[in-house]
Structures are given as C-alpha cells and as structure tokens.
Write a structure and sequence with these properties.
The structure is a single chain. By secondary structure, the chain is α+β, with helices and mostly antiparallel strands. It has eleven helices and four strands; from the N terminus they run E-H-H-E-E-H-E-H-H-H-H-H-H-H-H. The chain has a four-stranded mixed sheet with strand order 1-4-2-3, with helices on one face. Strand 2 and strand 3 form a beta hairpin. The longest helix has 18 residues. The termini are far apart.
Length: 281
C-alpha cells in the first residue's frame, strides 16, 4: 500500500456550527450534485426532533478544501440552526469524489432487521405495512405525496409502538396465507390487517378469512364481491393502483360495519371523484 496517499490526510471529530457549515457551503461546495430539497428537509426535521445521531458518517474535503461529501448534512445543519459533531476528513486526494456514494443506502427493512431483530424475509413487508398504517392513521392514505413519510428512525419507533399488533397480524398471515397465493402483496395485506385489527380484532380476522382466503361466505355478500375484484386486480383483468385497492377494501369494511348493503360489483370500487374518503371505523 502506498503510504503517500494517506500521509497528509487528517481525520478528526469536530463540532460544526451553522456558521462553519455556511462558510464551507458558500466557498467550497463546487464539486457536488444538485441539492435535494427533500433530503435536506428530512435531515433538518431529524435534527430539530433531536433524532440526529453521531453515526460515523464523515464530512470529506479535498486537498484544496473542496467539499466532496456532506452538502445535504451541512445544509440541514444551517437550516436547523444548531451545531452537530461529525468526523471530518481533510486533504483527500483529488479525483476520489467519483467513488463516493456509490454504495446502497440502508432501507427501513434493513434497519428493522439490524436494530429490532426482525427476520430479513419479513422486514420489507413490515416496513411497507408500517408506512401505510401510519398514512391511514394521519388521514393521508389517499395520496402518494410525501405527507406522512417516515425516516428509518421513525420506522423503528412505529415498529416498537405497534409491535404486539404487528405480531398478531403477522401470525395470522403465517397461518392462513401460504406460498405465493396471496391475493394482495404482503405489505398491503399486513397494513389492512393492522388497520382493522386495531379497531376490532375478531371482526378483522373474520373479514380476512372471507376476503383473503375465500372461506365462510356466500357469493352475493360484499366480501365475495370484494374478493372477486381483488382477484381481477391480481390477474390484471382490472387495472388498479395501490391506493384504489386499499380504499376499496376500507370502503367495504366501513359499509359492512355500518349496515349498508352492497349488491352490485360496480359499487365495490372506490372512486376518488365520487366517494368522500373516510378512515376505517
């Protein structure tokens, strides 16, 4: 190994103030990608909530002081108006910038698996379900916009908060949904089970047995019409998106619980322009 490559590199842990960060960004940020406002907002929010942790990620500067890595963290620091500690690596060789950030970011599923011991085979579905469950709880399931977006830290918090509920619903799926025969993607099914079981445990799993397993119902009941609709969606006979499917299921659930009769297949589907969105009850 050529020690000349490393002999001038300086590594230190430093507290960077908003003033320091602003100076670096204005004078030395000439070799980076375009700033992502979404990423900056995510980091800023985490800092303001005191969720930002010293995790070993570094601020990297070249031999002439050019910022190579860290523009989003420094920009968030300025916007949050608070100091943070970072590892700072200075005097890096010119040209190394092309090797930075080519790795894979950790997903929410990765973090659940590492931090909370969730099996890798279930972590992705649980993460997706938590996101959908949270969007439903804050009344934002209808939109695919950034409302209700969860950071990895918040995913872990939501998992710990609803761990018992997730466990009950996951156990039901393990017992009743086998192989590749699921009528819905597992994250969607788990989210629906979480939403309904959080309201009425017994009614939830009775409903699920009918709709997801096709058991204990007659052909004219709303659950049968819903199952036919979901099967058509799965086989691509009928076009649908994630939110239309989930809202259609919630619509049928609410209709059954309110005593409203649904007898025609066309009345099953949730129409965004006709149906006023309501949370499950």
């Amino acid at each position: 190994m050529d020690n000349l490559i490393f002999e001038n590199t300086v590594v230190s842990i430093r507290e960077i103030t908003p003033e320091n960060a602003s100076r670096i960004l204005s004078d030395k940020n000439t070799k980076n990608r375009r700033i992502s406002p979404t990423k900056v907002a995510e980091y800023t929010s985490a800092m303001k909530r005191d969720e930002w942790a010293f995790n070993g990620d570094s601020i990297r500067l070249s031999s002439d002081g050019t910022l190579l890595d860290g523009q989003h963290r420094l920009t968030a620091l300025v916007k949050a108006g608070m100091s943070q500690h970072f590892i700072v690596v200075e005097n890096m060789m010119k040209g190394v910038g092309v090797t930075i950030d080519i790795g894979k970011n950790r997903s929410g599923g990765d973090v659940l698996s590492i931090d909370s011991g969730v099996s890798t085979g279930k972590a992705a579905a649980i993460t997706g379900a938590i996101r959908l469950f949270y969007k439903h709880e804050i009344g934002r399931m209808l939109t695919n916009a950034g409302y209700g977006k969860l950071t990895n830290t918040q995913i872990v918090e939501q998992y710990e908060k609803h761990k018992k509920l997730i466990g009950i619903c996951q156990e039901w799926m393990d017992e009743n949904i086998k192989g590749q025969g699921a009528i819905l993607p597992r994250s969607e099914m788990l989210a629906i089970l979480m939403i309904f079981a959080n309201i009425d445990n017994n009614a939830c799993f009775s409903f699920a047995k009918m709709v997801f397993c096709g058991l204990g119902m007659d052909e004219s009941c709303p659950q049968s019409l819903l199952r036919d609709y979901l099967l058509d969606c799965r086989s691509k006979v009928r076009k649908s998106d994630l939110f239309t499917r989930l809202h259609t299921i919630i619509k049928i659930w609410n209709s059954i619980r309110s005593g409203r009769k649904i007898t025609a297949p066309r009345s099953v589907v949730f129409y965004k322009d006709k149906d006023l969105y309501k949370k499950a009850f």
